[in-house]
Amino acid sequence: MTSLSVDPKATDATKAAPGKSRAEKALARFHEEDRLGEGLDTRILAGLWPFIRPHAKWLVISLFLLLAGSGLAVLQPWLMGRTFDAFDQPDAARTLMQMGALILVLKLFEQSIAFPQVYLMQLAGARAAGDMRAHVFRFLHTRRLGFFDRTPVGRLVTRVTNDVDAINEMFASGTLNALGDLVRLVLIVVVMLQRDWQLALITFVAVPPVALGVMWTRRRIRDAFREIRVKTARMNAYLNEQISGMAVVQAYAREEKSSLEFDDINEAYRQANNRSIVFDAALDAAIELVQSLCIAAVLWYAGVRSLSDRVSFGTLVTFVAYIEMFFVPIRDLSARMTQLQSAMAGAERIFQLLENNEEDAPVPAASEGQAEKVEKKDESIAFELDHVDFEYKPGVPILRDVSIQAGKGEKIALVGATGAGKTTVASLLLRLYEAKEGHVRVFGRDVKATQRDELRKKFAVVPQEVFLFPGTIASNIAAGDVEVDEARVVRALERIGALDLFERREGGLEAKVEERGSNFSAGERQLIAFARALYRDPPILVLDEATANIDSDTEARLQKAVWAAMQGRTALIIAHRLSTIRAVDRIVVFHKGRVVEQGNHDTLLAQGGAYARLYQLQFSRGEAHAAE
Ligand SMILES: Nc1ncnc2c1ncn2[C@@H]1O[C@H](COP(=O)(O)OP(=O)(O)OP(=O)(O)O)[C@@H](O)[C@H]1O
After folding, report:
1. Rounded Cα–Cα distance for residues 593 and 68 (Å)
2. Of the residues 396, 414, 415, 424, which should be mutated to test ligand 1's pocket, given the most ligand atoms within 8 Å of the CB?
3. Which of 1-10, 42-51, 424-433, 462-471 has the least mean pLDDT?
4. Of 71, 242, 291, 558, which is most buried, counting CB atoms within 10 Å of its CB?
5. Whole-model pTM?
């Protein structure tokens, strides 16, 4: 796809930022996205086409009906004029009845095609937008984690919601009706000129000032809308922050201060809205005024001219009707242009996102031949880091020359100060990130040469911060399975000794899990994560032990869960509890991204090195007693 880069010039939001705090500037930059696009952009339209194409037939029918509707709308005042002209003809009564019937039929026809026209246009738009949302969501699933580290969540959510909606709006709000408006304008101009060119010119004199006025006002309205979007985003961000941090707000009696802050944000939002309302109302009133002036001018001129050349009654009726139809499309054209620009800007941002090439490669990165080369067929090794260097950000090394091997069934503990790089090792094994140097192998195969799904099926991860999805206890334990296998859920819970704990809850295993598992304690969430690991029953368990304090009953259950989960499989434990550390086969000690010691508890203790110091530190804190 060609590059659809965004114009880098600063926007109002960033220009308005001098002297502001860093946070405010960052916020302003974030809202910079509210800029509008360049109107019709063929590259963007080409990018949208694959989403529209499957629904294009509805769009074509709708546009055809739109053009037909525009023609019918213009035909009626013309017929009306002919009807009035027939008044002084001898067979006026018959002509009037015929024309009346014809106008009625045309009106009915026009109205009856209006429904399918609007419906089909919106249908095509809603379906294309739905496909696009699904596409972007699937695309996000296939990005590497590093991409999410760098991209704010809010921005990605906006791509799937607001930006796609902006494209949908193009269909829903009738932006494409601009085509009908244009046809209508051209037809009106032609009929007016043909009917009476002098009266037509009187009307057209008003067009340039109206067009200029509309453009000026629209620009103000557009600025006001942009301001509204910025204020809305600010309000959303503030509400999000306040509601998420409600516990702190209440605990520190911050309600009054928060209310004052919110009042400011609310007031700014109201004022931005006010500006758009004022300009919108003024524009409507001005258009009405111009229409009335045009009608008055036409009537006046017809009066003046009637001294020498009588203007027919029918012509006057036709002109009055056309003038009423004439300025509305001019007013709407610019609003539709704004909507189109907004849709193009939304589409451009989506395409920029879709250009990201950090794919979480589903298939082996190396060709088959290369894959063979990196394979190391030692069936007894479950996983291995072979002289691995790694950095999250270029130039900031996190792991340096790390080599760790785990034999099948071996239990390995990683210990070290916080930030030493232990969790990173687990992420590399799952190929959530890729090593800069060296090799990461799982069952003898380089992770880069393994199918993503095949690799990840070999692991169950119990993270420090367990993430629960809304659903039930059972559906969370069976995470990843569309159909929950009840018997397996029960067996998994039994094995970690937590079945009774969850069955006691109201609703049992079908008890509701709220968003992010907020109705479960940290310990309970950990237990669910252990059950999840056992349900999956993979050959390797990765356990990032939680450091949070939990009550002694849950602690005992967790201990049991750890042992149950480790049974019969290889385990990599990022260990914090001494009881866990002492019972593993091998301890790997990390310091600033390097492996500084390896061995079992007794050997390392006897060495009196880094591990012995860490152990003494924890022991002196009294944790060792708890672990006895
Ligand atoms: N996604 C990330 N992007 C950038 N830097 C990161 C990322 N994740 C971790 N780091 C940094 O990498 C270093 C190692 O982090 P890691 O989580 O592996 O440490 P750890 O030893 O597991 O720490 P802890 O015991 O606190 O869990 C830290 O300095 C951390 O700030």
Report:
1. 71
2. 424
3. 1-10
4. 558
5. 0.72
Nearest protein CA to atom 13 of ligand 1, as residue: 419
Domain 368-627, CATH homologous superfamily name and number: P-loop containing nucleotide triphosphate hydrolases (3.40.50.300)
CB neighbour burial string for 326-363, b if at least 16 within 10 angstroms, e if fewer? bbebbbbbbbbbbbbbbbbbbbbbbbebbeeeeebbee
Query: For residue 404, is pLDDT > 90?
Result: yes
Q: What does pLDDT average to over the chain? A: 82
Mutational test site, ligand 1, from 149, 398, 399, 432, max ligand atoms within 8 Å of CB: 398
Distance in Å from the first CA to the final CA of the chain: 62
CA of 424 to the centre of ligand 1 (A): 6
pLDDT in tens, 20-79: 444 444 444 444 444 555 556 788 888 899 999 999 999 999 999 999 998 998 898 888
Residue 602 CB partners (closer than 8 Å, separation 6+)? none
Q: Read off the tokens for 408.
A: 């099948």
Question: Residue 204 has which token pair?
Answer: 């057209």
Question: The dihedral of CA 440, 442, 446, 451: what is its sign?
Answer: negative
Distance from the CA of 383 to the center of ligand 1, in angstroms?
Answer: 21
Strands (E), 7-163: none
CB 58, CB 50: distance < 8 Å: no
Question: How remote is the CA of residue 423 from the centroid of ligand 1, in Å?
Answer: 7
Q: What is the pLDDT of residues 472-490, one digit of tens each?
A: 999 999 887 788 898 999 9
SS (H, E, C) 244-311: HCHHHHHHCCCHHHHHHHHHHHHHHHHHHHHHHHHHHHHHHHHHHHHHHHHHHHHHHHHHHHCCCCCC
Classify domain 36-194+340-357 by CATH number: 1.20.1560.10
> For the residues 557-577, what does the mean pLDDT come to?
83
* pLDDT average, residue stretch 91-109: 87
Counting ligand 1 atoms within 8 A of each CB, the residue from 148, 389, 400, 422 with the most, and so the one to mutate, is 422
419 Cα to the center of ligand 1, angstroms: 5
Domain ranges across the chain: 36-194+340-357, 197-310, 368-627
Question: What average pLDDT does range 170-189 have in this prediction?
Answer: 84
The answer to whether residue 130 scores a pLDDT higher than 90 is yes
Using an 8 Å Cβ cutoff, are 540 and 458 in contact?
yes
